[in-house]
Each structure stands twice: as structure tokens, then as C-alpha cells.
Amino acid sequence: MALIDDYLDAVKAQLPADKRDDIIAELRELILSRFEAKEEELARPLTEEEQEAILREIGHPLVVAQRYAGGPDSLVGPELYPYWLFAVKAGLLIVGAVQIVGALVALVGGPQSFGQAIGQAFAGFFEGAFYLGGVITAVAWSMERWGGKPRWMTDWRVKDLHAFTLADPVRWGLTGSVSAGVGDKAATARPAAIRTSPGRWPGSDALFSLIFGGLFVAWWIGAWEWPWGGAFELGDQLVTVSGAPVWTALFAPILALALSHMAVDLLGVLRPDMVRLRAVFAVGLGLASLALAWTILQWGHWFDLTAADGATAQVRGGLHLLRWEALDAIDQAERTLAGQARVLGTVLSFVLAGFGIAQAFAILGDLTKVVRGR
Questions:
Q1: Which of 45, 77, 129, 244 lies 20 to 30 Å from 269 when distance is taken between CA atoms?
Q2: What is the three-class DSSP state of 271?
Q3: Three-class secondary structure of residue 312 per DSSP
Q4: Whole-angstrom distance, CA of residue 170 vs CA of residue 156
């Protein structure tokens, strides 16, 4: 049956080459037996929709293939997850503390400005956080896949457990709290428009958005640079990435939009109860963001790639790349400067389209807040 063959081909593609034939034969027998049992129950041949329903009951090809593949089915399993989470939390606190100390030292003993020191501290924190998270996850994955645990995970003593309290953000004053007691007057006086879980400050989302907005503005005006720079290796050559004229032409509008977003986020930090007013501003900024994204998409020429030997290529995108054929062509792209430029153009076109879709949903959400006030 063509339907079964298509299903089994999808499963087969996910299986190890040395086991796939036996597994597919076993799975085919299982499917056929399910089909025959259902046909006997109905006293007639199954329709294609009924066959589809049985195959869906058996499971998606990716899930079924994982069942037969064996081994761990997650990067970090439930047994190791608490250790992984503690390591990430403690590591982020350490990285943050190191960057804060470094920023203070730079301000006291060096010629750096406040903006440069803060920008470098944030850049160092996020770079360290990414590296740290990746290393911890890789270690947990290797333990999950090949087994083996350090001695302190199995042979621990109660008197050593005090070190684990260092991962509590409350001890470091990094979390706010919202009283939710029944008899608490502050909780009674809190506007009904703010809904938050116990222990969470209602302005936390706006604060994080404000921080990221500040980082973007600092980078946009040249106060600091990404630590990994605007270059990448292609074969044995270093390729430099430079912006196209579109970014010069739109420098002021992008900066104004980012600063406006920060102003709304600042309002959310200072007055988290003013939900409806913030939502009104957010709708306007969302529409402006959509217009800006459309302008960038229509512009087409976004970046220039320059190789060490002097060869150049333009990263171009647009509506014509928003199709599945363009995505399929990424796999066949040549490892040349022109090929990588086409890949970047396709990827960035879809990223820009995804940004537009996300903005549209955000606008709908903000309109709901304008109507409901929460």
C-alpha cells in the first residue's frame, strides 16, 4: 500500500543503517495486522482516512523511530535534570558576579566610559552564559548517553549541602516578591489589572525587555561590538561582513523605534499597573515595526561579503525567496562566497518574515489588553 510505504519510508530515514531493514519489516507486520483487525471489525476495506487514523495512533515517524533506536530520548533526563539546573543557575550567578566586578574595576581604574563598561559587561555575560550552558548541557548529555556519574552525586554528606544554597537568587537580592496574602493590605490594594504568580514582580518582563533594548541601542550607535565580530571563515579564507546602504538610510528610524520601545518598557517597570496605556503605545510601535520590516524586505540588498582574496558577494533577500524551493536549495548550496551569500539571503528573508508574523500576533495581543485592560 502506498500509504504504508510512505509512512515506513519516513520512519526508515531516521533509523540506523544497520538496523533499519529488520525494524521496518517488524513495523510493517504490525501495521498490516492493525489494518486487518480493523477491516474484520468493519467487514469492509479501510478507507484512506481510516488508514491515516491508525497510522496516527501508532505514532509520528520521528517518535516511532526513536522508540526503536534505543538509548536516551532527551538531552538531559529527569534524573540528571536537577543537577543540570543547579549547575546552570550557579554558573550564571558566578558569570554575572565576575562581569559586575570587571565593570567596576574598569570604571575605577581605566579610561572607559560608563556606557562602554556596562556594554562590555553585558556582552561578556551573554557570551559566558552561552558557553557555560553549552558545556554543562554537553556534559549532561554525555553522562545521559554513556552513563557514569561523579562520586559527589551518589556519595554525598548532609554537612556539605550548604553550598547548594548559593544558587538561590533570593540570597543575592536578584528577585522581587509580590505579597499575595489574604489579609495583606498591600495585596488588597493592588490593582486587579496586574496578574502575577507569587514571588514574581509584575514589571520583570518589561525590565528584561528594557535591558535587551539598551544592549541593542548601545550596539546600534557603536558603543560596543559583538565579541565574535563581523567575520566568519569560509574554507581557508576569512570573510568580512559589512552592512549595505539600507542600514545607513534606516539608521535614524531604527534608533527612534528602539528608543520608543525602551520608553514603553521603562513605563512598564515604573508603573506596571498601567496595562492599557502601555498596550496602546505597543500597538503603535508594533505597526511601525511591521512597516520597517516591510521596507527592509523590499530593499533587498542587506549585506556585502568580502573574502581575503578580494572577491565580493551581495547578501540579497526579498519576497521571491519566501518559498519552500528556496529552503530546499540551501542543502545544495556550494561552499563558495556566492553560495553562502544566497544561503544568508534566504535565511534572513524567512527570519524577517517570521518577525513580521510575530509582530502581527503581538499586536493582536496588545489590542486584547487595550480592550480588557489586563
A1: 129
A2: coil
A3: strand
A4: 25
Per DSSP, helices labelled H in the chain are 2-12, 20-42, 48-58, 61-69, 81-109, 114-146, 151-154, 185-189, 204-220, 245-249, 251-270, 275-299, 324-331, 337-372
Contact between 243 and 301 (Cβ < 8 Å): no
Q: Are 316 and 302 in contact (CB under 8 A)?
A: yes
What CA–CA distance (Å, rounded) separates 63 from 38? 23
Query: In this predicted model, what pLDDT tens digit does every residue of 147-192 receive, in sequence order?
Result: 555 555 665 566 656 556 655 555 544 544 433 333 444 344 444 4
Q: Which amino acid would we find at residue 33?
A: S
At 56, is the secondary structure helix, strand, or coil?
helix
Grid cell listed for 12? 526508515
In degrees rounded to 5, what are phi and psi of residue 234? -130, 105
pLDDT score recorded for residue 224: 67
Provide the edge-to-edge strand list for the sheet that holds 312-316.
231-234, 237-243, 301-307, 312-316
Q: Judge contact between 341 and 305, C-beta under 8 A.
A: yes
Give the residue among 360, 305, 367 at the shortest CA–CA distance from 337.
Answer: 305
Cell numbers found for residue 235:
574554507
Q: Give backbone dihedrals phi and psi of 271, rounded to 5 degrees, phi first.
A: -135, 75
Q: Which helix (H) or strand (E) holds 311?
A: none
- Residue 118, all three cell numbers: 556596562
